Amino acid sequence: MIEHLPVILITVPILSALLILLLGWHDRRFCYPITLATILFQFVGGIALLIEVMRQGTIHYHIGGWAPPLGIEFVIDTFNGYILPIILFLAVAAAVYARRSVENEIEPEKIVSFYVLFQLLVTGLVGMTITGDIFNLYVFLEISSIAAYTLIASTRRPRACVAALNYLILGSIAGGFVLLGIGNLYVATGTLNMADIARLLPASYGLATVHTAFLLLVIGFSIKVALFPLHLWLPDAYTEAPSAVTVLISTVMAKVSVYAMFRVVFSVFTTAYFVETVPVTELILLIAAVAIVAGAVLAIAQDDLKRMLAYSSVSQIGYIVFALGVANQVALEGGLLHILGHAVMKGCLFMVAGVIIYRLGTSRFSDLKGVAATMPVTCATFALAGASMIGVPPTIGFASKYYLVMGALEAGYWVYAAVLLAGSLLAVGYIWRFIEVAYFSASSHHEDGGDHCPAPAVREAPLSMLVPMVVLGFLCLLLGIFVEPIMEIVSPAVSLLLGGA
Amino acid sequence: MVDATGLLPAVTVVTPLLAAVMILVSGRHENIRDGFTVAAAVAMLGSVVAMLPSILAGERIAVSLIPLLPGGDLALRVDAFGMVFALTAAVLWLLNSFYSIGYMRSLKEHAQTRFFFCLAVAIASAIGIAFSANLVTLLVFYEILTIITYPLVVHVETPEAMAAGRKYLAYLLIGGVFLLAAVVLTYILTGTTGFAPGGFLAGSAPPLTLQILFILFMVGFVKAAWMPLHGWLPAAMVAPTPVSAFLHAVAVVTAGVFGIVRIAGWVYGMDLLASLGLGTLLAVIASFTIITASLFALTEDNLKRRLAYSTVSQLSYILLGVSMLSIAGMTGAMAHIPIHAFLKITLFFVAGAVIVAAGRERISDMKGIGRKMPVTAVMFSGAAIGICGLPPFSGLISKVYLAFGAVEGGVPILLLVLVASTVLNAAYFFPIIHTMLVASPDDERSLDSVSEPPLLMLVPIILTTVASVLIFFYPAVPFMDLVEIAIGEITGSVIP
User: Which domain holds residue A419?
Assistant: First the structure.
């Protein structure tokens, strides 16, 4: 049974998506428990796979018993073994958070389809993570993308439809790039299995076909991860989507896209290709540095919390791609750590934004003055996750920043290390916007020492929204303090990527 | 017994953190809440004092808590120099706690729970800095200290305070980034960041790299408020007075100069600094700061701001001592940390007492205030005389060592700086003493409502002044003994 786990992680959720549809037709209340149970099951499965990989090495699973290159293969190694539990944990958090948030933001008759799509999105992303076949990767990419477009458009606001359409167009262009790239690789090597391509590709490193494929794939994935200046779909999509969906796409989906980019660049093309044959690392580094600074500056310029966080994502993605540009052990350890760290802290921050919207109906800074007095837990959580975003020790954000700077300095990129550090200071600029508004505005009423507030007009959000938010907030701190056990998974994963296996 | 002692450093850091949590929980009952503040201060002082005998016996207490990052675990190591800082901070925090409670209640300040929570976390970070075993741990606590003192600085939440808070954050966080770069670079060069007596950088890189690295460290320790990177400190004067006392004496600026001395003695080593010519650089920065800040102090009419510039000037005494790269100079530098802290906290306590009792912040409004607040004004005069370096106050001790250091280090020109500074100190302090004690008020009745501050504030003022006198008469107990051990460590001479 356990050896079939990889495929079960895909098939069971697809069946459960159908089940949600059928039972939801009968009674809406069935939808949520099934979704939550399925994603929890996937999370447990993800953990089990990670343990198995750490114990016995890479797992190869041939679907239907058909061996590659004919059949489709699922491959779980330390890299995606590390990514899988992260994204599924955040999916669980998002699912717990979703229930009340969805009731508030989505028309009751759309709730059934919401959970079906939610389930399909998660499943598509899991598929992208574990597949060892590059065409299969594209298929799962499209499944998850289509689910995402629809979910973004699911709120009552008309602007959401525009945002979704915008994303649909750019996402389809990205998909087109990726598909063309895969086609070129197929022409060059005659196979679609990633390991096979990596094995056959060195013979044709000189071919224009291969260069074109590399370019197409990198551009395609750059759109999907929203690497500046290909990020234009992101701010609207993150801002207009329902809160739970924003949490899901900003953490799980963004991280899986990054994973796919790393996987293709390192495991299909290998460092031998993109460091030596076509030296693009300097260029990638430059773009990443621009992304870090530009994203942060744009974030500072926003006057809406959710939109500010969206631009912050553009900046933070820059950090991860920065690691790809430096491409040494230490920097990539930092990059992989930041995949985890950024998922946790940005998930937490978007949950805060969602909670505030839930209670106040808006996330514009001008309407949030003194909100810390009425929602102390929410704002304290923001402060904690925000500190991690800035990289204040001992949070997880500090650990990844430390590794990235160290990697850059080791590689001799002094200027880029400085840019990275400057980027972290810019993060202070946007995180502090909210801190000042929430804590230090319009609450000048003096108290008699006991902090007796006037009866608050708004209260904290429901527990099912607060708990996942607070858990993620504390994780920012705990993961930063107990970073050593994580590095024991990250280090071999990075060695694997650099080894080009 | 050995195990218990091994845990004490961690206990010292964790105690105020636990208190911070309890302060949050009990925020609605102010007596219970403030009880936790005092209890934690007493417990922390107790555990610091409990470590004192073994440190005085020349031992070091080390404990590694968590493997953190390449370059250093989260590890604590108590040595004599760390003890100097920790003991100063622990004693002054206890006094400052009583004083804060008195001050905040008298003025019915808002958000007191936030205030005491932040103070508790800040003191934990200060102790963490004192006990850091390596640069990574030091960096962690240093950054926490920056963030957690921000709510204290902007406590009054006026636009002016918010602007000051931004300035404070900008300076200190940019500094923190430089420090991070310096720590990472140190690790890349040497493969370690653990403090070693006499330094560990020698021969690890070309001189130019080490010089640049030192500048990174200097900018990193911007909390030392050396000029021209001092702007945040006078700006932060908008904070409530207990915070100013905390910034100036207990923790923040002390953490900055502590860091620089730590780097000089335990990362670079005096020989390496001398061969890199960095002593001269430090001497120039320190002399410039001492003189210029004193001149700025002369022009300030706001008492707290004048004291702030006095701090900027006095902190550079410590840098000056380091720059001499001689045993006497280093001794003077280390000794000046507790000596200045005890004197300056008295002055800030008095400034706060005048605000509470008379509502006055400008020196020109304080004419004849000593008639109504005689004890307070006399204590102020004493501490001010002490800062000038006159007996019978502790300030004389460090000044004498610094003078010896200048001669021993072969830079007698620095004696001129010391003399000039003493004259300037007198020039900006004696008029205040005159105003308070001698001058007669413009309007006799304006002082009618003025009286001594509440006992919770007055007693700490008296105690810190008395302590400064006691340090003068009994310098060895325990500060000079600790300094002697620390000097023995970094210069390699055997501990007598």
Answer: 280-501
